[in-house]
Amino acid sequence: MTSSAEKAQLLTPAAVQAAYSLIQPYVHRTPLLTCKTLDTIASTPQTPEALVGTPFEGNHAQALALAASTLNVPAYIVMPSISTPSKIAGTRSHGAEVIFSGSTSVEREAVVAEIQAKTNAILVPPYDDFNIICGQGTTALELEAQYTEQAGTKTLGAVITPIGGGGLNAGVATYFSDKQTKVFGAEPSFQGADDCRRGLLAGKRVEAVSTLTIGDGLRTPVGVLNWEVISNKKKVEGVYAVTEEQIKAAMRLVLERMKVFVEPSAVVGLAVCLFDEDFRRLVEQEGGDQGWDVAIVFSGGNTTVEAIGKLFG
Amino acid sequence: MTSSAEKAQLLTPAAVQAAYSLIQPYVHRTPLLTCKTLDTIASTPQTPEALVGTPFEGNHAQALALAASTLNVPAYIVMPSISTPSKIAGTRSHGAEVIFSGSTSVEREAVVAEIQAKTNAILVPPYDDFNIICGQGTTALELEAQYTEQAGTKTLGAVITPIGGGGLNAGVATYFSDKQTKVFGAEPSFQGADDCRRGLLAGKRVEAVSTLTIGDGLRTPVGVLNWEVISNKKKVEGVYAVTEEQIKAAMRLVLERMKVFVEPSAVVGLAVCLFDEDFRRLVEQEGGDQGWDVAIVFSGGNTTVEAIGKLFG
Q1: Does ipTM exceed 0.85?
Q2: Using CA atoms, how far apart are residues B15 and A137, in angstroms rounded to an integer?
Q3: In Å, how far is B33's CA from the nearest CA of chain A?
Q4: Which one of A132, A221, B273, B288 is separated from A208 by 20 to 30 angstroms, measured CA to CA?
């Protein structure tokens, strides 16, 4: 059996490229958006000259449902019964069968085992998996292609993504691992949701997290294989954490000014760019005279108008 | 003095092109977005094969503030004191001075006259004006260019825009007046906000409207010059009206599924595509075997998270 460290060796930019070739005919090209207002707010004299964001629509359940419908095979999605209605509806809209479980991993795995016994279905893990990491890394490829279309020969300075289970961040870091673009991660700090950041400080992965942060997509601890990538300083430069109030402030800006509909989890990277003084100083130093363009991955937009009302009511 | 009918003669595609050349270096290129979910909903067997939308960020106050800051001249924006906080904040963020008035046109004009007397400022009318129509018509030009990038040699079948004062619709219709693409308008029906549609039926412009439709950007009657364009069957094919509930349903879809943050006024065109049986039949007939692509202009996104909460709470 291959160890996580060995598997991590195989996570190369070429593996991400291969994943992209596979999925490209079937996926929506997420547009790279820019916003003058956010540029202005982020670009006080010491900060990067431009700020770009990529709204990223997929969550795992919806992606799996879409893949199954593309392949014309049935999909069974196990979701905690407390999932937000929009996530459930989004998954069902692609034709998948949603099966509810309790919210602990033990409860979830029991339901999964039962379905597998009945249907011989293949389990597709949500983040801690080689192929999933490569697939999520295709975000970086789309982002870079669109950045180049807009910015010409300039090199993208940095990318920041949210970290929950860490698949997206590990995938993006894999793709940029042989390039100049630096990769950062962002987490909520509420009730210890910043397990990745704390793990990096302690030199050891944090295995369990119990938090009710509003960034509900980021309540998971970083996976084992993802940790191999993210804890590699050559791949991920640093991980930062933001408060619930900072997440809400960033979310309001994205909704009201950038006009993009995002869930709280999506904007932790933006919140770091706007509010974390350490990150801002780093950008100032690294960017030098030319400045850096920092791309921010927004993942995702699975929320409802009712949830927005509750959050800001 | 030139009559409105004579002025309307000068509203040509070339005039819109000229306006675009002037503003292009200074404006954000609004992306043409597509959404599979909305395509599917709109494309029951009898309806168009694809649906495309353009979020359109400007309202007049913000556009004027931006123009003034680009030219480095002061701007004084007169707004009703009941304006939404996001509109006020958006305008101020571009450096304009906001001056409040009552909400009737008489109250507003008195404040304007006072400012002009004090400052010699030039009055830039919000919609019923040759140059404003050409400027708003540049929406059509951006839309067409991006449609061609995506659709190749196929011709865009139709465009539908909201109608309040009618500048946007008249501008878009002006640009497409020598092309195959047909132009339609959409209004709320609540409390007679469908003044344009009613005027067309009666063969005479409706001069006053008093409505509290949630489409608060569309509470204005169509302007005199705009009426010249919109009532010309060769330029605007038809105007449709939708209910408050239809507007809310369309808005929820755009926010939750398309992930674009829009105000109620923005989605009246989408509501027509989704819910108006007459329009859907027309599209079916006109589109023929090939089907039509219908582009929907979303204008605008001037709302707040609190307003969203109130609307859907």
Answers
A1: no
A2: 46
A3: 8
A4: A132
